[in-house]
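Hello,

Our lab assistant flagged a job as stuck in the queue for most of the afternoon. It eventually completed. Since we weren't sure the result was trustworthy after the delay, we are filing this so someone can double-check. Below is the sequence as submitted and the structure that was eventually returned. Let us know if re-running is recommended.
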Amino acid sequence: MSYRDYIEEQRKLARTKKEAREAKAERLRNPRPPRLDPPPAPDSPIILIVIGICLTLAMSLGMLMLASPAAVPSQDEIPTIVIQGTPAETEAIRAWLEQEIQESNLNWKITAVRNRMEFAAHLNAGERVDVLIVDQELAGELYAAGMLAPLLKKAEAPSFAGVFAPLWDEQPFTKTLGWAISSTGDVDYARHLYTVFQQFAEPFTLNK
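-- returned structure --
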């Protein structure tokens, strides 16, 4: 490359740099407006239909809930104590139970059966049984059939003494009624009731 060509190249380079500086200065003086994103594509008709159906269903469900009466707990949902005894025994035990249940602000239903046949009919009808206050002999039969749970959670090896607690001291030739917990009911809540009576209730006496 001759010296003249070299000078010409330098001039072109200088002009290019000058034009670049002028273009940069022009951009600074007159900046371009910010680039706007293209408008979103119109929603698909299918999506709009699905949204409309969902909104309609939600509104219908809300109106149905407002129009429906408040749900009332079923009687089957209330834990139940079944007493097996004579009318006099049942009346005394019921009064004793109700007093402590009310004072402890608990929710229990109390029902009574007079004998094994009525108790069997109660079970066959699908009625709820959580706590039993029954004769020791019936409790033994239920224990042998695997229908009783331990009265206390900490009870280790299953035994009849762990599933039946007499209401009074055993006496010869005398019927003994006592606590038992059905293995088919709410065992934890039944244990809570039994513990409340053991700790806070007065001991039961039949002639009270």
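-- support follow-up --
The delay was a queue issue, not a problem with the job. The result is valid. Residues 64-75 have pLDDT under 50 and may be disordered. The CA atoms of residues 130 and 185 lie 4 Å apart.
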